[in-house]
Amino acid sequence: MIARVRRVPVRWRRAALVAGVIAVLLLLLAPLTSTDAAQQAGLPLITDKLWFRIATTVAMFVVLASAWNIIGGLTGYASFGNVAFFGLGAYATGALVANLGWPFILALPAAPLIAASFALLVGLPLLRLRGHYFAVATLGVGVAVGEVVNNVRPLGASTGLFLPIVRSDLLFFYLMLAAAALAVLTTRVILRTRFGYGLLAIRENEEAASVIGVNTTLYKVGAFVIAAALTGLAGGIFAQWNSFINQENVFPVTANVEMILMAVLGGAGTLFGPVAGAVVLELIIQTLAGGGSASVYSQIGLGVLLAVCVIFIPRGVIDFFGGRSRLSLSYLRRTLRETSA
Amino acid sequence: MSLLAVRGLTKRFGGVNALSEVSFSVEAGDVLGIIGPNGAGKTTLLNCVSGIYRPDAGEIAWQDRTISGMAPFRIARLGIGRTFQIVRPFPSMTVRENTAMGALFGQPQGRLQPAAAVKEADEVLELVGLGEKRDFPVLRLTVPDRKRLEVARALAMKPKLLLLDEVMAGLNAVEVEQALGMVRNVRESGVTIVLIEHVMKVIVGICNRALVLNFGKPLLEGPPQEVLRDRRVIEAYLGERYAKQLDAGTGKGPSTDA
Fold this sequence. Notes:
The complex is a heterodimer of chains A (about 350) and B (about 260). Mean pLDDT of chain A is about 85; it is low at about 1-5. Chain A has helices at about 10-30, 35-40, 50-75, 80-100, 105, 110-125, 130-150, 170-190, 195-205, 205-210, 215-240, 245-250, 255-265, 275-290, 290-310, 330-340, and strands spanning about 160, 245. In chain A, helix 3 runs parallel beside helix 8 (about 170-190) and helix 3 (about 50-75) crosses helix 14. Chain A has two domains: about 10-45; about 50-265, no CATH class. Helix content of chain A is about 70%, strand content about 0%. By secondary structure, chain A is mainly alpha-helical. Chain B has one domain (about 5-245): 3-Layer(aba) Sandwich (Rossmann fold). The model of chain B has no long low-confidence stretch (mean pLDDT about 90). In chain B, about 45% of the residues are buried. The interface between A and B is medium-sized, with 24 and 35 residues.
């Protein structure tokens, strides 16, 4: 392991670290300039409604991509049904707030709970499937759950649910940011424990994992449930933030594709890969979302980008950081050989 | 009390009896060789013992306790390690990390932390002769080294019984000699071994007993030298005609060379 690491000059690393910390701090503090107190003190307003909208969405996708990474990247089970957890979380919180009048903060914990319980229920049969079968089955579950919810009258059926509006861009930005931090932290803890190593073993060779003593069923379901809880939490926050939820906005299959793209482009199975993927990709999507032909081209562009990346940088962009690999012609040739084998 | 006792084990795939009524036992300290022509059911037998297949009939007992039908990970933690004929390493990990996984999950006596598992992995890697290559990514290993790694990962579990599925297959004469040395080291370290092998030199060189399977049925069991001279075994391997030639004194006996 040690032999493989290419030395990066220490002062470069230090500079990168300092720059990173400053950037994160600015990002964290910038929204505070929008408070009345800050405005009265004469601070420049660098965040408007649109800024909050974009930043909160980015943070949300950091949660979704990181959560997907736990089941898809670490465990090797490419779930196309994570959007069901998002939708269930949104509807759990949404129904408690809209129908029973619970305060949002009390209703929020229901989101991860419901999503995780559902993952436990469907995980046992679904995780017996592998590869494409698992992908297709989860896709089916995602779509089916959306359809069911769309027909349940207490959940507003096709009209959807309206939640009392909470006007605080700041609150939702920080909530989503906290959820993102939680997702990253959870991944980090998993990566350093027996549980994480077990997941990696399952990804690398499930049968070999089982004969060296990994309780594969427990571990797989565990990873699925954790991913579901995080995804559901994001859904719960989204419900109140958006104050309106229906099948279309909380069960979109496209969002599931997006979270996979982000995790894979950034680096599936790594800690920060999905984060980087989510930030970059979501910013691109938001920038190009102006509508008209631009958004059509952006969709096409994203598709092409994905295909190229999967073939040439299968370990994600994160592979170029930390001194392991360098983007070069020989790298591309090597990965092409790997992926075409 | 036998370490492992298999009684009347039967496994069917569709209409085919891959194993029918196989019985044998393994005592502590044994090195039992399982031989037989291709398709005789040798690997199926290992798959049943390690829990990958659920037997259709019969019983597998580990220290007098039934283990047939148990999940593979439970059987592993009881102290039964195994290797695969076609090696199954964790490809993105180094040799050391691969081995540490065995120590991390497979040990019967408890839960190791990752750091401790890596330390134990290093000891095992010395034993199988991969010490110097411990930081290699698996993909850089040669075939014989990959087979060693397969054994190392199983050994890191500190098993009482090790099931080896053709660890010598595909090795040249020199490599077989080296691998034989490794298996001897393992035996010396007090591990009971059941091994499947086509290389008769290995069977004769290290096993104290041999079990012959043919079409899923046990044909014969006994000391390796005797078993290999038995007419029925020669027939199973080389055909009836060859056995007749042998009777007539025109053929040569089965070679014990590789």
